Amino acid sequence: MYYNPPKLSDEKGDPKGFFVDLLKDWSLDSGYDIEFVSGSFLEHLENIKAGKEDLIPSIAKTPEREAFMDFTEQFLIKSNGIVIIRDNLDTIFVKQLNGMSIGIVKGDVYERFLDEYIKSEGISMKKVYYDDYKAVVDAVSKREIDAGLLNTILHAYYRQNDLGNFKDTIDTIGDVELFIGIRKGLPEVKASLDAFLDSQIQDKDSTYYKLIDRWFGEYLNPSDFPTKKSKTVLLALSLMAIILGFVAITTYMVYRMTRGRLFRSESHIEELNELLLNAVATFASMDPNTSNRVFFEKLLDVALKFIPEAESGCISIASNELWTFQAVKGYKESLYDLKIPVKYMIRAGEKAIVIKDISDYNRKELPEEYLKAFAEAGVGNLKRSLMVGYYMDGKYLGNISLDTTNEVEFSDISKRKLEYLGKIASQFFKVKQSAELEASAREEVILALVRALEAGDPYTSGHSARVAESAVSLGKKLNLNYDDLNSLKWAALLHDIGKIGVPREILLKTGKLNDYEFEIIRNHVRIGVEMLKGFRTLEKVIPIIVAHHERWDGKGYPEGLKGEEIPLLSRILSIVDAYDAMRSNRPYRPPLSFEEALEEIIKNAGTQFDPQIARLFVEHIHEIDIQISVKEI
Length: 633
Description:
Elements: E1 8-9, E2 15-16, H1 18-30, H2 41-49, E3 55-60, H3 63-66, E4 69-71, E5 77-86, E6 101-105, H4 110-121, E7 126-130, H5 133-141, E8 147-151, H6 152-160, E9 166-183, H7 187-202, H8 207-215, H9 232-257, H10 262-283, H11 292-306, E10 312-319, E11 322-329, E12 339-341, E13 353-356, H12 358-365, H13 368-376, E14 384-392, E15 395-404, H14 412-433, H15 439-454, H16 463-477, H17 482-494, H18 504-507, H19 515-522, H20 524-532, H21 542-546, H22 568-583, H23 594-603, H24 611-619, H25 621-624
Parallel strand pairs: 6-7, 6-8
Antiparallel strand pairs: 1-2, 3-9, 4-9, 5-8, 5-9, 10-11, 10-15, 11-12, 13-14, 14-15
Helix pairs in contact: 1-8, 9-10, 9-14, 9-15, 10-11, 11-14, 16-17, 16-22, 17-22, 22-23
């Protein structure tokens, strides 16, 4: 076993982790005795060649390795290469590391993909080799080298546990399926492993999926496992739309309550931003094949963090005339085994309600056997319960209930939060029910997400859709191909998504921004990238968004790129975004006229804007211009 978290050793040096536990389960199933041997990756490869070892888990299949190894038919997990950088570098892309040093594990399969990337970008990097990934991370953290090449498993482990001192680039290097490698000449062992893995992966209640939840569920994308993934993006974007809608509304409420008093509302905004990122990180990459229990346990964790009055809670579902618990926090897990006739269930609506002394209701309505089960699970004398139902197409599915033993009142904003969490639960079931991800459905979800963002700002309503349409029109004049036009459309729709993390008092300020406020505004690019970089289908979109505030003269942000260093699609987006902003009503000024906005584009050609694209924009302005009143989303 080589060092590759979460495949580690415990305090006694005994191996533990996903691959260890899976192989132990195979050992029990097959009757094979196994012994775990620790060492470096290259040592294990040499031992396999020499016949000293029989298996090596978590290994990529290559022609060179197939010469002396067999591999299981089914891969266990997918992984990418990820480049980390020292903490004092302001870098987003790997290509910006030209001439710098990068640490690589000897024999790492991702080195081949890195070489291809380096060649395609026309850059050079000094390679420094290490025996294991930990040494690479340590060297980057100590600033001994500029960058390090990791895999997604290790990277997620370090981030989840807040280990190491490094930053991330947003590129991924290669896409590799990891198998169990088997020494040549052991066909019966391979056949046994293949049969075991096939049965494990087909059974959603198997040890395999339980180990996934245990070792990866909190921090690794479920789409990296061999399950059906066609609906993952739709679920992710649907949940993001709901979450962003909640944040837009609650942030606007905070603005109304604290109008003109930035120092009072800023802590609320920061809390909401943290909760937003928490929710997005929790649900954005969740596979629709995720079990109800895994999903609801995550949802309940978020609910208890969102709603401070609650001490404990549960999520229940009504199915086949039985009421069962899908998630439990603050009570014993024996509640999971409880099955209660649905007639005893309080059927909450989509509007959150507060029930006082629900324990009194239980004592009056529930049979003794269920009261005893509640008591054994630690359900005590509850003073207040905040409850909401979740529904699909009008059909009642179940309740989310948050409880407290204290005489406290749940606030109106807490009730609103729980209502949105109920909508997230409903959306989860809707997406699980859909068979395929259709392009039109994805577009509708993204538009819903954008509407949610703009809900709290009357000055930008419809801005993203207008910019998208104008950008595509201009792109056609530049003879862009279909893929580029599609990327440009999504980048335009999502280019301001990071503004969800900017206090509304700043966005709606009527006067000039001070330096502090302007820096917060600029930060929306970074926030947007952080929110979107987990979506593989949006990988081509992120660089466009990152650079859309760069200027032709190099005085833009965040990187200060100049001229053709700025991606072409970003230069297109920059012009149409600026034009629509000038033609729109803003809190600090009325809209500019058609002639005034056009004059600004002409005046700033060659300084702010690409002069050739600006010239083309001006020539075709009557075809490209989308009047604010014509199309709203």
